[in-house]
Amino acid sequence: MREEKPKAPSQKNKSAKTKSWFWPIVYSGIAIVFVGMIWGYNAFMKEDSPGSADIAQQAPNDNLVVETNASKETLKYPFSEDLLDDVAILQDYYDAEASDEVRENSLLVFNQQYVTNTGVSISVLGQPFEVVAAMSGTVEEVINDPFTGDEIILSHADGKKTIYGSVSGVLVKKGDEVSQGQPLGTASENEWNKDAGVHLHFEVHEDGVPINPGSLLGFQ
Questions:
Q1: Residue 162 CA from chain centroid, whole number
Q2: CB 166 within 8 A of CB 129
Q3: Residue 78 CA: distances (Å) to CA of 54, 123, 133, 200
């Protein structure tokens, strides 16, 4: 009797076995790629979102935030507004087009010579008062002078400079970043302008030229 050989697996069975593992692998690969795309898209959107960008800009350098805010500020009084009712302008800014009375009041006398006032002399009932930054900025210079009183010069984001003279007890130093309203020192008297008593000499410069602080502030 002839021995029968086992039948070889049919092509159909081979194909079925191949399909049993082939498609799950394909589906798994597609799923991995799809998940990767979603993850990458979310990461990209998170980095590009405005909120994240703001935080990233603020975190490395807080001065950037101060400078951005400072450029939008308007000049304020160099003293607490609570004192406004008690403030007096002892000496005005010299303006050639002002009335005779104002021009006369803006002439300072020193060594029997007249000097035109490039700022305003501010008094609060003749008593010492806290001097504050009229705008946020950088301390450009602190000048210690016992004869004229100490002077603080601030530079600001809009190009202006403010000058605070006849000050004592200076609380800042060159290079400091200050915020609007931050205390700088205390108004005091000095030998150069002795007749004014305790006062603050306040100047505003624009493009290197003194301008009338009264044109920016409601001094009366």
A1: 15
A2: no
A3: 32, 11, 6, 9
Phi and psi at residue 136, in whole multiples of 5°? -65, 150
Number of H helices, E strands in the chain: 4, 12
The CA distance from 124 to 150, in Å, is 18
Single out the residue of 59, 218, 199, 76 nearest to residue 137, CA to CA. Answer: 76
CA 38/CA 54 separation, integer angstroms:
24
Cα–Cα dist 173/29, whole Å: 65
Residue type for position 161 = K
Give backbone dihedrals phi and psi of 81, rounded to 5 degrees, phi first. -65, -15
Tell me, what amino acid is at 62?
D
| DSSP 3-state percent helix, strand, coil across the chain (nearest 5) | 35, 30, 40
What would the pLDDT profile of 178-202 be if each residue is shown by its tens digit?
999 999 999 999 988 888 899 999 9
pTM higher than 0.85: no
